[in-house]
Design a protein that fits this description.
The chain is mostly helical. 85% of the residues lie in helices and 0% in strands. The longest helix has 52 residues.
């Protein structure tokens, strides 16, 4: 009896997240679209699938080590449901942390650009 399960789905989501993060970073860098949120969006698109993947495997390992005997008498869908819950929980926590860090980077970058503009205006006004 073969089990037909999409266990490679977390890896595919990780690859899609990395590709979307690269696209979002390029859009934020070279266009006005996402300019003020470039680090938040890019980091969250990377952090959700990466931390979710780590959470998927860690909750699977935890569930098997703690509930091994109980899980052996139940369908494998229980195990994948536990892994999916870990994926969503740890993905959310990683994404939330990345958005918090990315917000600080966005503010710091925006402030440095504004300070550079003020310095350029001061130099321009002083040269007149």
């Amino acid at each position: 009896m073969a089990v037909d399960v999409n266990a490679e789905l977390p890896l595919l989501i990780l690859i899609a997240g990395l590709a979307c993060a690269l696209i979002a970073w390029l859009l934020g860098t070279f266009t006005h679209f996402l300019r003020g949120y470039r680090y938040r969006v890019s980091l969250s698109l990377i952090a959700f699938p990466l931390s979710g993947l780590m959470g998927f495997f860690s909750t699977l390992k935890f569930a098997v080590s703690v509930f091994g005997d109980w899980l052996s008498t139940h369908p494998i869908s229980f195990l994948f449901a536990i892994g999916g819950f870990g994926y969503l929980l740890f993905g959310f926590l990683g994404c939330w942390t990345a958005v918090r860090v990315g917000g600080k980077l966005d503010r710091k970058h925006t402030l440095s650009v504004l300070y550079n503009l003020v310095e350029e205006h001061k130099k321009r006004d002083a040269s007149r």
